[in-house]
Structures
1.
Amino acid sequence: MRADGDVLHVLTEWARSDDNVRAALLTGSRADPDRRIDFLSDYDVEVYVTDVDPFGRSDESLEAFGRIMARWPHRPRGTLRDDGITRLVLFRDGVRIDFQILPVAALPVTIGDVAFRVLVDKDGLAERLSPLPASARAVARPTEDEYETLVYEFWWNAHYVPKALWRDELPFAASMMSEAVRDRYLRTVLEWFVAVQSGGPVNLGVRGRWLKRHLDEETWAAYEATFSGADVTAQWEAFFRAVDLFRWLAQAVGERLGYRYPEQIDREMSDYFERIRAHPRADGIL
């Protein structure tokens, strides 16, 4: 795989040599000195051009970076803005470059990432740019209304998992466990727990990707235990472990912030979940 300096050199020379390109910015992890990067870290590049249309017709200009192995979208189109072109490109040597190709008029005053690096600026367009404050992307402590809403919504949405497990509806049970119970609610309360323990906002990355770095071994192990395979018994156990972990985290956050944890819905819904698990399947569908 190419060295970081080699990729950035090619990017810079490519932008300089094309008169249509007026500015090119490196954003994301490779522009942030405080971020950990590895050989799988991609290059996020915002390219500001006079005319977007050539990039919408083909990827020929991007072949200057190497032989393309895979790309998204399949055909050039805008995904963030209707007037732009998104090209996420994985080259055969493993280098990945994510291009957002935008009209010059789209160059913002505040860049969306905490850090950015100007690669090319032919017209002084980037001089007005300022980074978004780190606190704007960090997880903060919840308000009392946010806390209460999340807890009550958890107990409602969680009940779909035991119903689906009892009915032997594996795809739906797995989807609700992953997308709702674990990702939407458990991850959110984990992030709040970290923010409360840290004493202020903390950046945990997209969808909590850096949670492990901020949790003690015991709490992380409890979170890991909420994952399971296709075995129904293991899924039941993972679900109840997720419920127990959510309860403990939500109570800890609420106690720290002075918010009341709703014990009654916890007690009644937990009992309901147990009754579903114990209900004989021969009696029919609930």
Note: The first strand starts at residue 21 and ends at 27.
2.
Amino acid sequence: MGFNPYEFLKEDIGEGDRTTEWIVDVNHISRAAIIAKEEGVIAGQKYAGEIFKTLDPEIEYYEQKKDGNTVKKGDVVTEIYGKTRAILTGERVALNILQRLSGIATMTRRYVEAVAGTKAKILDTRKTTPGLRDMEKYAVRVAGGENHRITLSEMVLIKENHIAIAGSIKEAIRRVKDKGIPIEVEVKNMKELKEATLEGVDRILLDNWEVESVKEAVDFLNGRIPLEASGNMTIGKAQGVAKKGVDYISVGALTHSYKSLDLSLLI
């Protein structure tokens, strides 16, 4: 779903920003700054800027920190110049976007740094806020992570429920073979991994495997098929799994358990 600043503003403004309309003159001009109140990684500048420009097309939005940049407490993230009404009315929506996406970017960067020096790449999942997937996955990318699937149509991912319905891994794979898109299959143990290997899939997902069991899978495949690990991936567990030699680590927490970055806007 694409970003629609009008819908975001409509939700917040309703029939009008009564406080600002009744206190601030329509021609009043201000300078404002968005300031970081803690250390983190910025994401969402392009969206926040559109919020203000929707309210005042002539507003000047200067990104002092670009998406993907690290900030520390007290850093000026953005400087804004334009109609005061637009700045005050757009403030909450713009900050909501920046704070949440920067929270995702900050958490993603921590995971990326935790597995540095290994070949593992940090992936997000589809555990995103309904309607905000494109924005949240964008925040993952600017922080150095990668997107798994944005939609269900991009890849076949055969999970335990699909296998149960099909009757076996072999049958589930047979039903999706030769459809022209990549196939990944989730396996619970070495027996299932070996079965999936024989069917010629593009990636194998080790869901909720213990770290030592992951090493067994890596050694068995020896690079023949890319391996992805997932399931309750704390930073510590991600480090351990990465060192065992997996290719990907998917982390649902990036988009469902992040902490928003503390930012404020001051006139």
Note: DSSP finds eleven helices and twelve strands in the chain.
